[in-house]
Design a protein that fits this description.
Largest interface: A-B, 20 and 19 residues
CATH architecture of the largest domain in chain B: Orthogonal Bundle
Distance between the termini of chain B: 65 Å
Strand order of the largest sheet of chain A: 1-2
Mean pLDDT of chain B: 92
Radius of gyration of chain A: 14 Å
CATH class of the largest domain in chain B: Mainly Alpha
Number of helices of chain A: 3
Number of domains of chain A: 1
Shape of chain A: elongated
Order of helices and strands of chain A: EEHHH
Helix content of chain B: 25-40%
Distance between the termini of chain A: 32 Å
Mean pLDDT of chain A: 87
Low-confidence stretches of chain B: none
Number of strands of chain A: 2
Strand content of chain A: 5-15%
CATH superfamily of the largest domain in chain B: Topoisomerase I, domain 2
Oligomer: heterodimer
Strand content of chain B: 15-25%
Number of helices of chain B: 20
Chain lengths: 75, 698
């Protein structure tokens, strides 16, 4: 049986076997990279960080969509 | 009837009708050339010791087209130059135009090309002389001028160049042919892929310069859309000096840790400060460079918000009125031959410039500040000294005044400024106060109001002086996303990357807008733009490579210098395009699917009025009732039955989303255009407080 192609977790683009499409993958990488700065700045946890950037008006579209997904779906 | 006399005459060809009228008047002994209009084509008879007829073109009358008629097929590598009416819809007028020129050519015994002295002008003149005048391109002479003033036109007519600039023409023809090969093949590949997949036709285009330009817009858009801000803090101290409070900044503009910032604040609390060091430096600010087209466009955008294309068309009008020199130049040089003194004297006839020009004319010598860039055909843009003979509209007046003041400023002396940095220590923490004082205004006064110099002056201070600290403030800040390109910064980037020419760059930006790849003044790349660039990057990265485009540009410039041949460059372009078109054809199905989806999405986005205020997850669009056919604004979830949001609309007129929300209630708004009526903005909220207030009052 043919396997259904997976969809990006933040949008509906087909992604093969990755979690995010190429656009959102870059945003995800950026989120991960920037956590080091936030941790140094505010000594906050990953979860707190995600919720902060989700609400921040300067976080841009794709990063916000990924943060939104992570806040709702990460353990 | 076309002018026919037994006497022979000189036939001058110009690029546009306005230039023909001006050249003819300048050459007529009495300054009044006789105008004839033949089948809507104007031409002018100038009487002097010899008869002269000046006939204009309408820009390009010939263009590159496929040698075979195979619409929508690709690859296409066989090309030829044809009259524009054979290749373009809506160019029927060109047929009559060429007939009139050919008829006038029959009785002419001398031919002069007086089109603008640049690549485009040279091609226009060359192709008319070759194809419409019966092969006169080798015997024709060339008028070379940079302003349309009587004196310069007379001079260039009496002593024309003996022949056309064939190296420039060869380079120009190659540029057109290479651009045509890129444009036709890549655009057809994209358009046909989408058409064959969806059955619907939508024009998609890309080109040799368009692709790389869209690529760097897309790169910037990606970094904006993925942006995550990081927090930082800045600290300011209010220090009292001489009875006034000044804000001193902590020596590090950004502190990356809140704990560290708090510690600095705590350590400053209740402490006084002491000036530790006062550093004074003098700076010389050199006058600005004369305008080339790019810097004029950039300055006009930053001062007046005129898009580059608008600035170049205003400048072109001023040039045709002989008020400024030829604007499509890349030169930053002002040779003395233009006659600095005479220009300044003439400008001084207006009260506005009288005082400033007198000041410059009193200098022992006039030496302009110049840049490195040169243009073999024209100097930098300068005012001719002629004053307007008609009332200029506001935009024309602005650009003319800007050119005049910049011209004066380049002859000014450097501005001398003094900058003082006072370091204040508050319990070992260093803060800085800055002072800026203009010692000698120099060129600044010639360039006002287009330059502002605001001095910040501190009271006299000395090292070791105690200062009272009134407050220490901690400011929470976040890093900001990269700024978007605007038409001016994008133009500068294209210039820096050396892609496109001064004549084509602004038009390319316009094309990206009209193809809906980008939108808004602060440029946003649309989903369609992303999809097009993704397809090109994935299947034919060579055509969006800035490096490759620049190399091709260099080779075309080498043709002009005689180091490269047209055949070689064309062969090289075809060698690049052949595998690219093969790949695009092979992947047509996948590309078509991606592009069709993006087109569909773009069309839907165009219709979107705003977010649905009822269900919060749908979008409001204009819909039609399945029963009555009447239009209304409804939610995209309306026909699925999950949202009942529906708002009435007038049944006549054009409805356009405004892209913003009502200031009173925050609901989406639309603009209604109705024939014969004033347009109005409509808030979709039936209970909008503004509407209720209006009903109460009426």
């Amino acid at each position: 049986m043919e396997r259904k192609p997976l969809k990006c977790k933040a949008c509906h683009r087909e992604v093969g076997d990755r979690d995010f499409c190429l656009l959102h993958l870059k945003a995800y990488e950026n989120i991960v990279k920037k956590y080091a700065f936030w941790r140094k700045a505010l000594k906050i946890s990953w979860k707190e960080y995600l919720s902060e950037i989700k609400q921040n008006t300067l976080t841009r579209e794709w990063a916000k969509e990924v943060a939104n997904y992570l806040v709702n779906n990460e353990e | 009837m076309v002018y026919s006399l037994l006497r022979k005459y000189t036939l001058i060809i110009t690029e546009k009708p306005d230039a023909a009228s001006r050249i003819a008047s300048a050459l007529d002994a009495e300054g009044k050339a006789e105008k004839t209009v033949e089948n809507s084509v104007p031409y002018y008879m100038a009487k002097r010791s010899e008869d002269v007829i000046v006939v204009p073109a309408l820009g390009h009358l010939y263009t590159v087209a496929s040698a075979k008629k195979r619409k929508r097929e690709y690859p296409v590598f066989d090309l030829q130059w044809v009259p524009r009416y054979l290749a373009e819809r809506g160019a029927a007028q060109v047929r009559t135009w060429l007939k009139v020129i050919s008829k006038l050519a029959e009785n002419a015994d001398r031919f002069i090309d007086a089109c603008d002295y640049d690549v485009e002008g040279s091609i226009i003149g060359y192709s008319i002389l070759k194809y419409a005048c019966g092969g006169k391109e080798n015997t024709a002479q060339r008028m070379k001028y940079s302003t349309l003033t009587k004196e310069e036109l007379e001079k260039s007519f009496i002593a024309p160049l003996p022949h056309l600039d064939f190296a420039l023409i060869e380079a120009g023809l190659t540029r057109h042919e290479v651009d045509w090969l890129y444009g036709i093949n890549l655009s057809r590949a994209l358009t046909m892929a989408a058409k064959n997949y969806s059955g619907k036709y939508a024009t998609l285009s890309t080109g040799r310069v368009q692709g790389p330009t869209l690529k760097f817009l897309e790169t910037r858009e990606r970094s904006i859309k993925c942006f995550v801000p990081t927090p930082y803090w800045s600290i300011k101290a209010g220090v009292e000096i001489g009875g006034a409070v000044f804000e001193a900044e902590y020596e590090r503009k950004a502190i990356e840790s809140k704990a560290e910032a708090d510690a600095i604040i705590d350590s400053c609390k209740g402490k006084d400060g002491k000036t530790e060091k006062i550093e004074i430096k003098e700076f010389r600010q050199m006058p600005p460079l004369p305008f080339d087209l790019g810097s004029l466009q950039s300055e006009a955008y930053s001062l007046f918000r005129y898009a580059p294309l608008r600035t170049s068309s205003i400048a072109q009008r001023l040039y045709l009125d002989a008020l400024i020199s030829y604007p499509r130049t890349s030169s930053q040089k002002l040779p003395s031959a233009i006659g600095y003194k005479a220009i300044l004297k003439q400008l001084g006839r207006t009260s506005e410039y009288a005082r400033l020009t007198a000041e410059l004319l009193a200098k022992p010598a006039l030496k302009p500040t110049e840049g490195k860039k040169e243009d073999p055909a024209h100097p930098a843009i300068y005012p001719t000294g002629k004053l307007p003979e008609r009332v200029l509209d506001r935009a024309e007046k602005n650009i003319w005044d800007l050119v005049v003041r910049r011209f004066m400023a380049v002859f000014g002396e450097p501005t001398i400024q003094q900058r003082a940095t006072v370091t204040i220590s508050i319990n070992g923490n260093h803060f800085q106060l800055n002072e800026r004082r203009t010692l000698e205004e120099g060129w600044l006064r010639f360039y006002k109001p287009y330059v502002k110099s605001e001095d910040t002056v501190l009271p006299p201070m000395e090292e070791g002086q105690r200062v009272s600290v009134k407050r220490v403030i901690l400011e929470d800040k976040f890093t900001k996303p990269p700024s978007r390109y605007n038409p001016s910064s994008l133009l500068r980037r294209m210039e820096k990357e050396e892609i496109g020419t001064k004549a084509t760059r602004a038009g390319i930006i316009q094309t990206l807008h009209s193809r809906k790849y980008i939108r808004e003044e602060k440029i946003v790349v649309t989903d369609l733009g992303f999809e097009v660039i993704d397809v090109l990057k994935k299947y034919c990265p060579t055509v969006v490579s800035i490096e490759l485009t620049r190399k091709l540009e260099e080779r075309m410039n080498e043709i002009q210098q005689g180091k490269e041949t047209r055949e070689n460059v064309l062969r090289g372009a075809i060698e690049i395009l052949k595998p690219v078109t093969e790949k695009l054809k092979e992947k047509e199905q996948i590309i078509g699917a991606r592009l069709s989806q993006a087109i569909q999405k773009a069309k839907l986005e165009e219709r979107i009025i705003g977010a649905c205020p009822i269900c919060q997850n749908g979008k409001l669009v204009v819909l039609r009732s399945k029963k009555t056919g009447k239009r209304f604004v409804g939610c995209t979830n309306y026909f699925e039955g999950t949202c009942k949001a529906a708002f009435p609309l007038p049944q006549k007129g054009l409805v356009k989303p405004l892209g913003n929300v009502c200031k009173s209630c925050g609901w989406p708004t639309v603009r209604i255009w109705m024939k014969g009526k004033r347009t109005w903005n409509l808030c979709l909220n039936p209970k909008c407080p503004i509407k209720e207030k209006w009903s109460e009052n009426h």
